[in-house]
Amino acid sequence: MAEGIKIIKGNIVFTPSFGQLEVFESSFILIEGKTVKGIYRELPAEYTNMAVTDYQNTLIIPGFVDLHFHAPQFANRGLGLDLELLPWLERYTFPEEAKYTNIAYAQAVYKQVVTELWKWGTTRVACFGTIHKAATAKLLELLALAGLGGYVGKVNMDRNSPDILIETTEQSLTDTEDYIKATVDRYELVKPIITPRFVPTCSPELMTGIAKLAQKYNLPVQSHLSENAGEIAWVKKLHPECQNYASVYHQFGLFGQQPTVMAHCIYNDDAEIALMAKSKVHVAHCPYSNNNLASGIAPIRKHLDNGIAVGLGSDVAGGHEVSIARVMTMAIQVSKLKWLATDKSEKFFTIPEVFYLATKGGGSFFGKVGSFEAGYEFDALVIDDSSLEVSACNQYSVEDRLSRFIYIGDYHNIVARYVAGAKIEQPQL
């Protein structure tokens, strides 16, 4: 008998390439350790005597990836969403994040955050914490204890920030390195990530320093790019020497020198897009937040056409939904508005396309994640969509059942979750 092999059976659906659904009805997926060994419609002879976890007529899909999530803003979901970005930050976000100097408050909220991520099927996440190293380390610990995968960043802010949420440059660098040392080798699936909030709140000295930390500890980088017209004008005023917003990050070593993900990317000009493609920067597309804060509609099709990797982000609490399935539907809806606004020249997204963004597209930031191709880490959701049936007489294809779950299903339909080959039960934190 093969050691370390799991066998799972169901209707297997994934996207090995953008827009291409692969469907294996009533098939077997073999997992060896953490990774997929293969998919078979009939079990090979050497495995026929092994135990099979038979999920019967369920859908088995890759786990959802959230490439942009502000964990400390969780309590603010649904608040201030009649404002634009900068006043929303000042009135709601910064005062809430300042509370995370209190580790007891941070722990209470972060326990709820991690449980919600698990509940809605997010198996990998790129999280912003706050400037507070202890609270951010607690978030990383809770994600790891829950069995989820991700990156968690201690935020850096040393200028243009309220007194309740600002660091000196020296303290920001010291606390960031302390945080990295305490967490970088502690857990296998959850790691630190360098996290300048955005250019307006980070001095040149700070950006230079954290870029050195990214190189020293071989860490990825996450931040925001070209989200709002007022923000872009502010960056131009702060850095008139730079051609555009992206080139500010680039000149300080925070734009592709290490693996990098930038959220929003709504107003990228052609020069920025070229630099993003050359630097292999990932885009976190956050359609809920872009709508809620009246920021705009990102040209995601253009990013993809230029070879830029794209995933989806909930962007809680600019986005009010934790569910990446909901984010998928919003990505389709805003792409249809973009299609109409461009005289139907920029094609709107399809279910297979946004499903790719929610799985393999975002998963690529974490390595071989988000697909069921051989060698990929087995992150999966098992979907029992029987409650969505109106009549037992209706017989839908697996593709249509996937679409229906994405649009009208919820966490009740997720009956099992796997991360890196391990089944993940509800967190007991």
Automatic annotation (TrEMBL):
Keywords: Hydrolase, Metal-binding, Zinc. Residues 60-421 form the Amidohydrolase-related domain. InterPro entries: Amidohydro-rel, Metal-dep_hydrolase_composite, Metal_Hydrolase, Metallo-dep_hydrolases. Signal peptide: none annotated. It comes from the Bacteria. GO terms for cellular component: cytosol. One of its GO terms (biological process) is guanine metabolic process. Its cofactor is Zn(2+). This is Amidohydrolase. It comes from uncultured Sporomusa sp.
